Amino acid sequence: MKDAIKKTAPLLLWLLLAVSGGCMDAYSYLFREQVFANAQTGNILLLGVNLSTGNFSVCFRYACPILAFVLGIMAAYLICRCAGKHLRMAKLLTVGGEILVLFAVAFMPQHLNVVANAMISLACGMQLECFSEFMGRRAATTMCIGNLRSMVHNSMDFAFGKDKEHLKNAAFFAISILFFALGAIIGNLFVKGFGAYAIWGSCLILLSCLGLICVRTA
Fold this sequence. Notes:
The protein is mostly helical. The chain has one domain. It is 80% helix and 2% strand. α1 packs antiparallel against α5. The two termini are 14 Å apart.
């Protein structure tokens, strides 16, 4: 039983991270003035549109999460670099940092949405950088565009080459996308039920991830 848990822990960890990613994006978009926590492409687009129309006060709303996302990537990079071969410790610190940041977000009133969204984007950037690979597959738990491209690419490779490894890869990316969507559904339900405190749903999921990281390396 213990061996089975340790064997399935990496995949379960990955899928829970995807659910958390979907929750964070749904929360920031639905409750914090329609800003994306993860999808910086959308934020860059809206930043550009508002720049072109002279809505400079609105531009700040989208520029802050982009900058915070970059800082999150940098922070996780430094954590991983300092941890060296101790990858377990880097993951624990990254997820632990996310939990603290997201826990604090719930106490941010609506007039501080810019700060709240920046903090969520910071957490997302950290997660993206630290968890960017699963068993040799380059993938993401905080966005879907790369996973969608990889799913289609591997599906086409399987169609032409009949290599079952490509089919497995396509299934993995498809499941990752589905769990991200599941996170968005959960996030929407939490926002309707708990308002500002809905982000604690991601905290609970990430706490489970901490446990899985410990189980996997125990």
